[in-house]
Design a protein that fits this description.
Jelly Rolls, glycoprotein, signal, mainly beta, 4-stranded antiparallel β-sheet, C1q_dom, Cerebellin_Synaptic_Org
Length: 198
């Protein structure tokens, strides 16, 4: 009889411990993310934004268009002296990847949504006697630059990369500040992707 009482007390104690652990876990969990045609985020502490995207159940919906990536290359030389494009935006004539269709024919990335984006570029200079400078531009302002200016090297790379916080409709592109580009054999590239939406 004594052994049965001890066993019953142990079962009750274990049950209470499991119930208490479940209650703590239920209140302290991170949001659970399920992916499919839409993204459902369950939050134990919901707050409603100005657009009312969260419900009283702590569920918010995000559209499935969170996949954004592009990669483009050049296949010909770019001579600033006879450029018709006075903005000096570097044109990439072969688009290898354009998931989300956010890289335009004008070689400008147009942000489809707010988020953190990764960008990198690799631009080749042609001649030994010149220096190139390439700027990555955000809404008309330079964010980062890259230089290649070794006079003893026929082809040299100006390369750089950055993570940027972008709002919807922000514009990112490359601008040639100085020099000539070699794009033959797909040497010069510009790529980017959405790291995560906000």
């Amino acid at each position: 009889m004594y052994a049965n009482d001890v066993f019953a007390i142990i079962i009750v104690a274990v049950g209470l411990a499991v119930q208490a652990e479940f209650a703590v876990a239920q209140n302290d969990t991170e949001p659970i993310i399920l992916e499919g045609k839409c993204l459902v985020v369950c939050d134990s502490n919901p707050t409603s934004d100005s657009k009312g995207s969260s419900s009283a159940l702590g569920m918010s919906l995000r559209t499935a268009n969170s996949k954004v990536a592009f990669s483009a290359v050049r296949s010909n030389n770019h001579e600033p002296s006879d450029m018709s494009n006075k903005t000096r935006i570097i044109h990439f004539d072969q688009v290898l990847v354009n998931v989300g269709n956010s890289f335009t024919l004008e070689s400008v990335f147009l942000s489809p949504r707010k988020g953190i984006y990764s960008f990198n570029f690799h631009v080749i200079k042609v001649y030994q006697s010149q220096t190139i400078q390439v700027n990555l531009m955000l809404n008309g302002k330079p964010v980062i630059s890259a230089f290649a200016g070794d006079r003893d090297v026929t082809r040299e790379a100006a390369t750089n990369g950055v993570l940027l916080f972008l709002d919807k409709k922000d514009k990112v592109y490359l601008k040639l500040e100085q020099g000539n580009l070699q794009g033959g054999w797909q040497y010069s590239t510009f790529s980017g992707f959405l790291l995560f939406p906000l």
